[in-house]
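Re: the pair you flagged

First of the two:
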Amino acid sequence: MTAEELTRCHARALAAAARLRLPLRSRVWKGQAGEFQGAGVGSSLDFQDHRTYVPGDDPRHINWQAYARTGQYTMKLYREEVRPVVDVVLDASESMFFDP
């Protein structure tokens, strides 16, 4: 395969990869906080749910208005945001090249 053919092959592969979208399973390592909504509880601005306070919870998330109404500590839960980290490994050895 010549250098020019290899360059064209790489260009086609990159164009195909740009159109590829793979769904991520919920158990993958999620990386940094980011622009995608996760399945768990996090620290975004999007409210998700309430739950009863448990010792060790962050007191910044206590819903003081609910406490004033009920006398019980209630935690505000927020939606998790993630920026998934995906590693892609390609075998670029000579035996894997083909010319369609």
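Second of the two:
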Amino acid sequence: MRGGAEDGSILVYHTGPSGKSPGEMRRVSLSQLLQHPSPRWRPVAGNSNFLGVYRWNILKDAN
């Protein structure tokens, strides 16, 4: 994973559907997720609920 909990990395993720709710987008810091009380929300390699990190191409430098 690029960066670390100390660098202020911000993540945007979709919670996925739950019941009749379609889910929602959330914005959190990496350190918040790494310290989440429920292990299923932690973005670590051993978590089968975590599918990876993707950087939006729109954020890439144009050069």
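Helices lie at 30-34.

-B.
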